Amino acid sequence: MADANAFTFQVPQCEPGVSLKVPAPDGVTLKIPLPPSILPGDQILMGKGADGNWTVTKVLRGVAPETQWRSPEQMAAECQSAEAVKVRLDTTKGPIFISVVPSWAPIGAQRFLQLIDDGYFADIAIYRAIDRGLIQFGVVQSTDKRSTQYSKLPDDKLVGIPYAEGIVGFAAAGPGTRKSTVCIMKADFRTQLGKGELGTPSTETPFGMVCPESMATMHLITCLGDIPQCGGAGPDPVKLETMGNAYIRSEFPSCDFITGAARA
What we know:
Layout: E1 2-3, E2 6-10, E3 19-23, E4 29-33, E5 43-48, E6 54-60, H1 72-79, E7 85-91, E8 94-100, H2 106-118, E9 124-125, E10 128-129, E11 134-137, E12 156-157, E13 167-170, E14 182-185, E15 201-202, E16 208-210, H3 215-220, H4 237-243, H5 245-251, E17 257-263
Antiparallel strand pairs: 1-2, 2-5, 3-4, 5-6, 7-8, 7-17, 8-16, 9-17, 10-11, 11-14, 12-15, 13-14, 13-16
């Protein structure tokens, strides 16, 4: 929901009690302190008063119908099916193999494979890595031709794929904003992400899963902490976009990188 005087956003994965920077429909960036009771996945409704100030009007939790998740056995079989496409991400900790399953999220899967085929994932910082959380990568410098090469994607529909450990999907800042930033889950977040009635369009639609033989390598990625926008002390994606990898290598020399990617 979004109009001139009201909008809704979902609380991202972040530490309890942090302040979030959230863009409002009028162009103002709001700094919203989260009470400890607010959890990742909660929906926060914002309203603009007659004085022009934005305030929290309501917090919703558990409003979506209980999702019927596919079983681990079903997901493993689909990752080995004829439609699955295996890709290899070369990282500074070693290769990570991913099974992409187009039927899970056709639009997202097509874009991810396009990025693989185009050579997008070369010298890409894994700038967000949270212990028992997730890893995130895909931001490039604004002067890099890759930054404007791809348009934002419409949302895929929920098909019951849980955000389990090893699940791969795109990061998003709201409906219709998926582009080229990818997240891999380091833990099970099905109680917070990807919930809703099957067939509902959502940004939280996984398109693949880390192969079992690569789970250990995925967990070796250095965890620098959450991004400052979510209260962490890790790399700032805005500075990464502005200054490029020189910023990462100067201030976070232990940061891991995606060095290349290809279909396996």
